Amino acid sequence: MDSVKAVDIAAVADGRVRVAIISGDPLTADGVAAHLRGRHEVRLLPHGKHQSADIVLVLATEITEETLGWMQTVHEQSTNSSMRIVLVATSLREQHLTRAISYGLASVLPRQETGYDKIVRAVVDTHHGRPHMPERVVGWLVEQNRTVQRDVLAPRGLTAAGLETREVDVLKLLADGMDTGEIAATLNYSERTIKNVLHGLMSRLDLRNRSHAVAYALRTGAL
Predict the structure, then answer these.
(1) What is the pTM of this model?
(2) Confidence of residue 50 (pLDDT cuts 50, 70, 90)
(3) How far from 108 is each of 5, 119, 130, 134, CA to CA, in Å?
(4) Counting Cβ atoms within 10 Å, is residue 57 exposed (0-12), middle (13-18) or buried (19+)?
(5) Which of 78, 83, 139, 163 has its CA 20 to 30 A from that of 21?
(6) CB < 8 Å & 24+ apart, contacts of 132-137
(7) Rounded CA gap, 201 and 164, in Å?
């Protein structure tokens, strides 16, 4: 990252969001940093302290391998498990999206439509679990999820929640109030098989009981 101008913005223990700016354009980085210095929501970190940032703000034009390299380095060097990346860019290619997300990308802002106030709002929202994504990017994510479900998980009898399809079938009926005997009759399994299915998923996912298993399935969207 020798060619990258990095300006760190962070908060000490005063509730402000810790942010680091990374940009290949020093003038752009300086302009954004100058505005953010005057905002009470954030505070500048000393140079070189981006490892502790809550939000890393990446300013770019087209996303290239170099840009992804910045993200990977930030991800690998971060000492903050909650670190997220906010990307301000002119363009983003679908083939780069999965890699960027694996490095902590949470929000994407179109550069041509984004002013300083919008950047601050996205930084704060992303830190509090409210990502900003263009509809086109959301569409890519939805389609990628469908593809993984169809081509990777479904052929193996799995769901995105880490449950087997048979386990989901059992939990649906359990959530409807059926006991193991009724579930067995409905699914044409033996009652021993149903008990083994429940025992297996509770052991694998460290779930305390059947109610906990149903709650897990609901929380992960499997039911």
Answers:
(1) 0.65
(2) confident
(3) 20, 10, 12, 7
(4) buried
(5) 139
(6) 132/86, 132/107, 132/108, 133/107, 133/108, 134/108, 134/110, 137/92, 137/97, 137/108
(7) 9
